[in-house]
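Loading example: each entry is read as four labelled lines plus one structure line.
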Amino acid sequence: MASETIELRGHIIDSLILPKVLDQILTQGATFKIREIKIGQNRTDQSFARIEVSAPSETALSELLLRLLQHGAEIAKRVNVQLAPAPADGVFPRDFYVTTNQQTFIRIDDNEIEVRPATMDSAVAADQGKARAVKFYEVRKGDQIVIGHEGVRVVPVQRSTSHTDVFQFINRSIGADEPKAAVIRELGAELTRARQAQGKIAVVAGPSVIRTGAGEHLERLIKAKYVDRLFAGNAFAIYDIERVLFGTSLGINPDHALTGGGHENHMRATNVIRECGGIARAVAQNVLNSGIMHSCVEHGVDIVLTGSIRDEGPIPGVTTDVVEAQKIMRDKLSDITHVLLLGTVQHAMAIATMLAPTVRTVCVDIDPWAVERVIEHQPFQSLGLVTDVEPFLRELADSILSKN
Amino acid sequence: MASETIELRGHIIDSLILPKVLDQILTQGATFKIREIKIGQNRTDQSFARIEVSAPSETALSELLLRLLQHGAEIAKRVNVQLAPAPADGVFPRDFYVTTNQQTFIRIDDNEIEVRPATMDSAVAADQGKARAVKFYEVRKGDQIVIGHEGVRVVPVQRSTSHTDVFQFINRSIGADEPKAAVIRELGAELTRARQAQGKIAVVAGPSVIRTGAGEHLERLIKAKYVDRLFAGNAFAIYDIERVLFGTSLGINPDHALTGGGHENHMRATNVIRECGGIARAVAQNVLNSGIMHSCVEHGVDIVLTGSIRDEGPIPGVTTDVVEAQKIMRDKLSDITHVLLLGTVQHAMAIATMLAPTVRTVCVDIDPWAVERVIEHQPFQSLGLVTDVEPFLRELADSILSKN
Amino acid sequence: MASETIELRGHIIDSLILPKVLDQILTQGATFKIREIKIGQNRTDQSFARIEVSAPSETALSELLLRLLQHGAEIAKRVNVQLAPAPADGVFPRDFYVTTNQQTFIRIDDNEIEVRPATMDSAVAADQGKARAVKFYEVRKGDQIVIGHEGVRVVPVQRSTSHTDVFQFINRSIGADEPKAAVIRELGAELTRARQAQGKIAVVAGPSVIRTGAGEHLERLIKAKYVDRLFAGNAFAIYDIERVLFGTSLGINPDHALTGGGHENHMRATNVIRECGGIARAVAQNVLNSGIMHSCVEHGVDIVLTGSIRDEGPIPGVTTDVVEAQKIMRDKLSDITHVLLLGTVQHAMAIATMLAPTVRTVCVDIDPWAVERVIEHQPFQSLGLVTDVEPFLRELADSILSKN
Amino acid sequence: MASETIELRGHIIDSLILPKVLDQILTQGATFKIREIKIGQNRTDQSFARIEVSAPSETALSELLLRLLQHGAEIAKRVNVQLAPAPADGVFPRDFYVTTNQQTFIRIDDNEIEVRPATMDSAVAADQGKARAVKFYEVRKGDQIVIGHEGVRVVPVQRSTSHTDVFQFINRSIGADEPKAAVIRELGAELTRARQAQGKIAVVAGPSVIRTGAGEHLERLIKAKYVDRLFAGNAFAIYDIERVLFGTSLGINPDHALTGGGHENHMRATNVIRECGGIARAVAQNVLNSGIMHSCVEHGVDIVLTGSIRDEGPIPGVTTDVVEAQKIMRDKLSDITHVLLLGTVQHAMAIATMLAPTVRTVCVDIDPWAVERVIEHQPFQSLGLVTDVEPFLRELADSILSKN
């Protein structure tokens, strides 16, 4: 039987931290004694708990503590982190600490320093009083890397107690059967506040945004300066350009809507942009004079395009190497405060793992599981809507632009 | 080896009748020789084919012919139907002919008479030169019932060649990823034409119509006289009434939208209507003064409510016996020309099997399989849309009412 | 500003009662002060909290208290329930208390009495020191019915702390992407223990059990005495009988598996059973000599068949009135300890609302949302598996029968 | 009004070519006259039709003809293809002909030559009496590329008339509700025949193969030499290795099955393989001594691993550039005769577009839409199964290995 004492601080009850910790302990076959507990009497008061955890073996205890740590528990006994050198470029020492996307501190020489940025699935490198999250591709032989979990402290985002807003709910998704109009209006108000407060809004969009005819509403938001950065795949850009060049998927004519249409225009649109030398040049040459890509170029929206093994082409400007693409995406997400993930599971899942825990995240998709899987990464700051993306974007744009 | 000669008539190629027949023959392990074929040279010309079908055994041939018959093949050799008396009330003779929902004729005394109504999953009773489709509950001991399939001729609905409209497509459904605006406008135009031509429009609605906030758009259609009959379950009526009496699920307030709310109001709304003695009385007593049910009463829309084992209550006016409910539904569907099936798989599936093959049928649901399964019953007259029901109804009502 | 003091008792933290209560208070726009809190130091110790709740108005407070009550809060001030007479047969007094499926007590003349049975969506009738849950169809004019929520105390099922088993998890479902073999073995062990302890096992089965070929595995469980009662619709029974009489949907021959086959056999199987006068008679007359229905008759398994508006027939023995069907289902579920809900959303949803909170409930379906919606009614005693029903039943039967 | 005469040859009726062509003509608002038609009298006879097509404008006619061509129509007037030089490396001339994955011929100097390979979404380069399909990345400035569609002839795969097998059905998928045992046995027999006839079998596998515990069955097939090549993403390889190194997702212990487990092991497994220098080295160093990757190395199965923007790492040997990955995939698919696509939409969609039309393709996924979208690329040679991948692979391996 091995034991350790942990401590919890903050809104540990209404942010569900204490229950989750006790839940983990029982689920893993361990036991606990609550040594001390102080519950805040008002909703703004902080609480505190000191709990002795016992597990059948040292190994079981160690695994359990790692998990409790990630829920915000601290080990009462304050110790420094252990460090080991990276054995080679791109390789971490065995037993390296794996980060979450929560705010994280490490104790070195009895001082706590914050790990920056708060990036999940990284190791922590310590160097000259600084701690940084490093990915596989960043680590160099000999870098001092945190191993084990002693001396690491994680501070989960806690539930806001000051005001109830649309993002305050825990893993909240609005199902296909629920009304969305009011939530979309609230979201519009939130984006307007964000805009006024110099927030940065990113849109991550899949091809269904174009195919369902939602593109015009995204354009309205771009023109009104509600989009700072656009993340998409090669296919998204081509669908938009194809619509502009050939009118495909516009759906004005019901026959068009119903017959679909071949793949030729997709190929030809790709060819046109390749011939021009990229989207910005196609705009400059007046080959591309409307659509989402055009609006992005005209209004200075950063376009971050990445490739996939399903792409034809791709067009110039698409990052085809996935490791390189991840670096660019991380960089372009670093100052974002709000993200809209629209009709794109692959992209949305990738981006969700790159976000800081404070980024307010909205995921819209007609597939309920896609929505669930994406928003579970942002427990206190995300909102999922199971709906068609076209009416969502139409209502959001209407709601925002009627106020201006 | 057993053989029989069949004949096909009409738009047998572009209505896919000939290919389906040959497909069935090969799939069932039989063979064919095409003895004669005349293909219409223009799209309005009828075609004709005479085909000799051979199968390994008489039984196999008989089973195959039954299936070909349902695809519109006729047996070249003209014979009269065979009849046998029903052995008891509610029981058909063995080997009774099972109807489809296609136009069907039987040959008696060398005269062909049409079976009425064109109802699927029935037997055919012949009496004094008339042929009628009878359900289990209608047959009486001694009724003369068609057995086997000789002398039966089925005439499938063939594809319209005169004009292309939104209903001309074969099992056509518009997926989540496709644009729907143009199709919805076309549908609006079709309903407007239907209205002017004294057509009858039925709406079959599930609870999601209320929960998503689509109810107000259905009310607009009711007030504009675009709904002749409303089919729903007890739960639908209660959700509507609950919204009127208690404001639940209205979703004005985003907190309401997000917190859901208990089941009490559902129970209380049921109790109120039970106390009043039914919906019409609640309207008369001014207890119920808005909402869909209220609009139906005010505008003379027939309300056909049926029960399910999931219901609480139910309220007066709901038919709780399912056999009785089917009789009423069949009767209330008999003069309908257009049906909208909105967010309700159970009801939609039941109703789809009760429709004449010429009824123009639209099915809207966010679940693609629900849409597929419903529209496959109406191959030449149905349209499926995979989308949220609220934006669908909003756009449909906008499209229809802006023209008036 | 209106205030009330509530108390919570039991495993209020690890059963999530305290967090849910605080969550509700904040979500509804109210505030709280924790006046007293004692947390059990070991996992078997009970905890206690006394909380002062304040809401903006008396109405808001009353609504909030009702919800907190359902989560197990008690109002500190002990008062008797208020009663009012039912105004008519089948009608409750306004503001009647609506039950949950949790254990419930009411205080009358300063004595607490338990409401029996623990049935959700009922009112509570008090008569001569007894309290019973009554449905709409049971209430008679003048019955004394509890109104408001004062004097009502709800005791939610709390999480088991003695042993971890497959049912201990909160709304736990195993997704399509997760391994199920070990869970199915555990479930087999649980059913074996249940059998030895004189538990009663009910199976609720949908047509996909037959269509996927899972019927033989259900038969093995029936023959081994692992099924006490079978709940199904008319269609389930006919699919089983059709398979026995005509071999349809048996799928021995891959062509059969692929070609589907017509609806005739479904109609003919219905006719055969109608002619025999029911399933038991068809077995007695040796018309039906294998299959699930046959096994049920041979092994004394109660068959509870209910109708729906999609049924043809139905066969004798099917309860076609839905209110009558509910009464029978409730009665036949009253002594059940374990329920398997297999491939049938409609039935599963209906049955889930009729179960006592202690009934161990397993829901198996290939549709993840169906599973979610069913198991949310049994938060501490349910297990959902998103999988094909055929391999599930095969593995379960293998696992159970290999041990015997 | 513009007109052109087209010809159709082969099994144009039972392969649905004639109906689809007439369908397209009507749907696009054009008209037709059938000038000549000869229908084969036996099922092995070829048929012939000559049809005059008229469209409102030359542009409409041209678009329509392009589509008819892809369905196998030939333009009666035999003309040579038109060629134009590629204007730059990686850019096709405007109006380039876009290939399908059907067998295609072009007429040059009045000789027809076949385009090789039969690759969709390519252009056709003609050079010294040879015609090859070229992708964007292959074209060089000045290459002679086919433009327009004159002189191009497409020969769709026609339905086999010699024998009915599991692949003969048109876009056939077996739904969640249908029996699969017989089809899986047939598929086992087909793979056994393929093996004996020196066919090449590729498996394309997603992470759910590992997560559901299906890995051991895939290993059995690898060891029995039923897999020639394995296509997967980085995540698949890591899930397999993680299971070997840490036992995660193995699911022996039901608690493990239920608690999930963190992401750390995924990161650590990646690190181990990076440290070893790749999978083959990890096997050579005996770090990796079981699992799918190990079996592939031991039994000489080619492993083709590609990256995505969701990957961590990745491990050495993963192709991270998507254009490079496509080249490798095409190359490694060129001699494949049978493909199993298991639980992986992204990969399956990419691979489906790279297959020759004669490759027999099986797609297994629990999501019905995923299955539909994948198999629609191989209309006459594909089979979809909507089911859990674990029981599918178990039954397939049992069926194949019991015969050996």
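The radius of gyration of chain C is 24 Å.
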